[in-house]
Amino acid sequence: MKALSVGSVAPNFMGVDQNAQNINLNDLLNKGPVVLIFYRGQWCPICKKHLSKLQDELQTVLDRGASVIAVTPERQEYIQKTIVKTNITFPVIYDEGYKIMNAYGVSYKMKNTEAFIINTMLGASLKKANWDDSNTLPVPATYIIGIDGIIKYVHFNPDYKKRASVNEILKQL
Question: What CATH number does the domain containing 54 carry?
Answer without folding.
Answer: 3.40.30.10
